[in-house]
Amino acid sequence: MATTPASGSVDGAGRKQIVTSLATAAIAMRDVAVARGGRQIWSGATLEIPRGSFTALIGPNGSGKSTLASLVLGQLQPSNGSLSVLGEVPHRGNPAIGLVPQNHALDKASAVQCRDVVALGLAGTRWGMGLRGKQVGLAVDAALEAVDGMTFGKRRFGEVSGGQQQRVSIAQALITSPEMLVLDEPLAGLDLLGQVEIVELVHHINHDRGVTVVFITHDLNPLLAHIDSVLYIHNGTPQFGTTDEVVDSDVLTELYGTPVQVTRTADGCVFTRAE
Amino acid sequence: MWFATLVTSPSTQSGIELLATPFLRNALIAGTLIAIAAGAIGYFVLLRDLPFATHAVAHIGFPGATFAILVGASPVTGMLVACVGGGLAIGWLGHRSGEREVVTGTVLAFASGLGIFFASIATGQIASVTSILFGNILAVSSTQVIVFAAITAAVVVTIGLIGRKLMFASVDPVVAAAKGLNTRLLSVVFLVAMSLVIGISVTVVGVLLIFALLVTPAATAIRLTARPLWVVLISTGIALISVWGGLVVATYLPWPPSFVITTIACIFWVAAPFAARLRRSDSESLHAAGQPAISPH
Predict the structure, then answer these.
(1) Per-residue confidence at A18, pLDDT binned at 50, 70, 90?
(2) Of A48, A139, A233, B6, whose CA is between 20 and 30 Å from B44?
(3) pLDDT band of B4, cuts 50, 70, 90
């Protein structure tokens, strides 16, 4: 079994630590419900996502995965219950949270350089002109290095590959040195190798920097080797469990409403497969 | 028209003497101011996908100008008021209408009809209507130059203040909103600035040729570079060369400046891909060496 244990994991390098405590949870919810346009999306969410964890957020389309992200980012207020994110009430513009949005295909992508996209993550909320100040430049270099992106930093965003665009988006999210990263379907549109590279990159950000990761996806397979927990929305209620608890044939079959089989192979990989 | 009387006697006056004439001096200052204002907003017009909106706003300004003529007010004032109103209306539509192009186009056609209706009532003003539609930089008054200077200064200062925020909100609206930027307010501020620039640019190139100053120079610059500050500088430069070129040629040849201005801007735009290709092949060899290797960790 090579799936990462659910919590309290400290490996040989010893850098990753998962802390579970009410006060220090990355995301803590008490009976949270959320509505959009008068329609209840989900309700009854009582859960804690520990700091330093790598959590996959799964659920069928339209179940409210992105809504949960909006809630965490302070873009949406819960219609019921209480919610704390990194120990505070969620609020917009929190530099401690980095966002990699869904379909991050920029408008007018060919009119901007990758470097400037990253720089906007830091300087884009400030008054004034220009993105090439020395301080910003150093931060951009550091963020691009963290995603292995120095080679294409000066190319136009619209000219680099989908995987490279996703790296730029992650660098943009990392430039404020966030404690938590929220990624909304970052693997959409990538080929298999591209998916593996992005998952590995996110794993390193989580593992080496202790950044809490919430990874929204409809496909759990590419993540199984690295996630330690799963947040899933079932029957209109978000639930949180360890990978071992959730990645189970019966649970996933019920969750997706279609037969899913979990196979544990000899070399430690875990696959889920619809029949 | 002014330039028509001017070009009848080019041989008797040197360029310096021509510059000393108030209308040509006004034209030169006005043209320079408008080129700077257009350069400041052109990049954002493209980033925010508003080229067609500039065209529409100019058309909405047309009835404003002809109505002003009808009631004996300054057409430039009427133009500015109608442009700002039109710009705000388009911004409001942009948030809620999936048929933005159809709505804008319909309003544009109606505005043009209204403009020509006002002009037909104000009899004997055909020359003014032609100036509004095709521009007449040589008719700019000293008072107008002062208005243009104030608007250009306001627009440049505004863009200088909000440039970074505006770029973030334009290129990456989802993350910008998550970071707490008021993207809607930025949009309104920009539309007002853009509409003011359109209002004053119409005096140079006219309602029908507004693209040549507001869109074509920035589009040319983006073909050459993706660095925002360079785009602004290059597009300002192209607009300046176009306007100055138009004035110089018009002092010696019986051609309308608008024709020369749009032609120069268009030549830059057509030539830009070739220049970009030359630049790229220069740096290609460097890039090839530094192509990212696939790193599976």
Answers:
(1) low
(2) A139
(3) very low
- Cα dihedral B141, B147, B152, B154, rounded to 10, equals 170
- The answer for residues whose C-beta is within 8 angstroms of residue B205's C-beta and 6 or more apart is B134, B135, B212, B213, B258, B261, B262
Asked if B176's CB is within 8 angstroms of A124's CB, the reply is yes
pLDDT in tens, A110-144: 899 999 999 999 999 999 988 888 999 999 999 99
**A172 contacts in chain B (CB < 8 Å):** 172, 175
Residue that wins the pLDDT comparison between B11 and B146: B146
All CATH 3.40.50.300 domain ranges of chain A, comma separated, are: 1-96+178-248
Q: Is A112 in contact with B175 (Cβ distance < 8 A)?
A: no
Weakest mean pLDDT among A1-10, A14-23, A117-126, B63-72: A1-10
Contact across the interface for A125 and B165, Cβ inside 8 Å: yes
Query: Strand pairing of A260-264 and A237-242?
Result: unpaired
Quick one: which of A84, A94, A57 has its CA closest to A173? Answer: A94
Q: Which of B47, B168, B295 sits opposite A111 (nearest CB)?
A: B47
A92 touches B at CB < 8 Å: yes
Structure tokens at A45: 């969410």
Q: Do A116 and B168 touch (CB under 8 A)?
A: no
Contact B175 A152 (CB under 8 A): no
